[in-house]
Write a structure and sequence with these properties.
single chain; 258 residues; mainly alpha; 16 helices; elongated
Length: 258
């Protein structure tokens, strides 16, 4: 029986009571029927009904998660995602994970997204590619919150976040959060590449408390840092040229000595 014939047979969607005798239909057909459904509760009944004789698969979960997301039920999305991670020991694909990210971002349910990430970390299923894709997709504030969840952030995760912060504006609080993540990375005697340390120096120089940040990073001030200080001063004192000269002269002297 073709997919189109099944759709004609169930024009109003999946009804678990009628569906009992058709448990044997192909899973792809069942997934398509789920996606066509408009009632999450009825679809969930059919889902558990269909998989009562065999463990659920990612394909079935994916169809049901998309349905719940389309209906705006973020709690159910989280419940299903946790269920596939913990009860059935399934490993979400990059496509499914990013689909969930898209669903929850659209619903503006970031707390749920963070819960999902934490659950993946707890179950050991937070693969590098998934976390990197998430960090690249989110804004600075949300990316930092995700990064802070990770007990052992990797070099690539740190570098992606630094690049994101470098390309836009960030606050002192956000930079402080980044440094805490860098500390966790360095705790295992890991080292950042020189390009990353220079980016951190430049970001530190953009704040008045830059020297304190350098001390926390155990980095010395250099030309990169002082150039960032100059840019900050020029930006804040742009309409006072004489004042700029007085303030920047000591920095020029330090650059000469650096």
């Amino acid at each position: 029986m073709t997919t189109e014939m099944w759709r004609q047979a169930f024009p109003d969607g999946v009804d678990s009571l009628e569906f009992v005798q058709y448990v044997g239909i192909p899973e792809k057909t069942f997934a398509l029927l789920l996606e066509k459904e408009t009632n999450p509760e009825r679809a969930t009944d059919a889902f558990h009904f269909y998989y009562s004789v065999s463990p659920p698969t990612l394909e079935g979960y994916s169809a049901l998660i998309h349905l719940c997301g389309r209906c705006g039920d973020s709690d159910k999305v989280l419940e299903l995602f946790e269920e596939l991670l913990t009860q059935h020991d399934l490993r979400p694909t990059r496509v499914l994970f990013l689909s969930v990210v898209k669903i929850l971002s659209k619903l503006k349910e970031f707390s749920v997204l963070q819960s999902i990430t934490e659950k993946m970390v707890e179950t050991g299923k937070a693969e590098e590619s998934l976390i990197l894709a998430l960090l690249a997709r989110l804004n600075v504030s949300k990316a930092l919150q995700i990064l802070s969840v990770l007990e052992n952030p990797t070099l690539l995760q740190i570098l992606v976040t630094i690049r994101k912060m470098k390309s836009g504006e960030c606050t002192e609080d956000q930079f402080q959060m980044l440094l805490e993540c860098v500390d966790k990375f360095k705790a295992d005697n890991n080292k950042l590449p020189r390009s990353a340390t220079e980016d951190l120096r430049a970001m530190a120089g953009s704040f008045e408390s830059g020297e304190q940040f350098l001390q926390k990073l155990k980095l010395k001030a250099n030309v990169t840092y002082y150039n960032a200080c100059l840019k900050r001063l020029i930006h804040t004192q742009g309409d006072k040229p004489e004042s700029i000269k007085q303030i920047t002269q000591p920095i020029f002297d330090k650059i000469t000595q650096a």
